[in-house]
Amino acid sequence: MLRNVSHLKGFTIRARDGDMGIVDQFYFDDESWAVRYVIVNAGDWLGGRLVLVSPLALRQVDWQSRLIDVSLTKKQVEDSPPMDTHKPVSRQHEALYLGYYGYPYYWAGQSDTDAYEVHREELAEAIDAQARPQLESADSHLRSTTEVTGYHIVAADGEIGHVKDFIVDDETWAIRYLEVDTQNWWPGKKVLVSPQWINKVSWPDSKVYVDLTRETIKNGPGWDDTIPVTREYEHRLYNYYARSPYWAPVALQVHVHSAGRG
């Protein structure tokens, strides 16, 4: 189902052998708009340490109980490579983390089912003098949902509002929409914008540019964030903007996009 990221904040993360903390925020990949890590506040258990949990470890989300089960033990998490989540996570740190758990390098084009077993010590030895600079210099493209919340949304002819939230698929952990608050222009109206409609993001200026006009967005379907996103609403949204939905074949998406609204 499609859910608001903000509604997940504070959910309890339950390991195989007990509770290990609460959801603090998410890191997503700004190229694929996929959630790559859940940031978990371990609280008193690990002295307030923030730890990363990959969606690959998530087993079940219980929305009623505000609980997420993960296929990890507390010992695994305690011994995982430490990371300073207050600073950008480097590609090298990601490699150590993913290697520790035996997860694939998503940036290498490996699918989630291609996970391989490799220990942290073996990975560290494998990163020789030639490979290490490449990992350190590579941009991991990770962004925090907390950081991007509040970014200005800029249409083809001017600003229309700011990012209020993210709508994520709790099965694939893909970000399907940005929830945009347009209160400065159209009081009380919120709209959804697909990452597919984003031209670029200016991280230094905290702005997201979309290939739609203000008038088009103003007259488009509004969004009530108190109710779940339904497929019926999604059909209305994509039909209005004359865009092919994310669940359509890629060839159709390209064809419809070329004839979409401005």
Structure description:
The structure is a single chain. This protein is 24% helix and 30% strand. The protein is an alpha+beta fold and 262 residues long. The chain has 2 domains: 143 residues, SH3 type barrels, CATH 2.30.30.240; 110 residues, Photosynthetic Reaction Center, Chain H, domain 2. The strands form 2 sheets. Strands 1, 9, 10, 11, 12, 13 and 14 form a 7-stranded mixed beta sheet that branches. Strands 2, 3, 4, 5, 6, 7 and 8 form a 7-stranded mixed beta sheet that branches. α3 packs across α4. The longest helix has 11 residues.
Describe this protein with a few key phrases:
2 domains; seven-stranded mixed β-sheet; SH3 type barrels; globular; 262 residues; alpha+beta; 9 helices; Photosynthetic Reaction Center, Chain H, domain 2
Average predicted local confidence, pLDDT: 83
Structural class per helix/strand content? alpha+beta
Spatial separation of the terminal alpha carbons: 29 Å
Task: Count up the helices.
Answer: 9
Domain module count: 2
Order of helices and strands: EHEEEEEEHHHHEHEEEEEEHHH
- What is the fold-level CATH name, i.e. the topology of the largest domain? SH3 type barrels
Q: Count the beta strands.
A: 14
* CATH H-level superfamily of the largest domain: PRC-barrel domain
Largest sheet, in brief, is: 7 strands, mixed
Which term fits the overall shape?
Answer: globular
- Which CATH-level-2 architecture of the largest domain? Roll
Structural Rg: 20 Å
| CATH class designation of the largest domain | Mainly Beta
Poorly predicted regions are: 110-137, 251-261
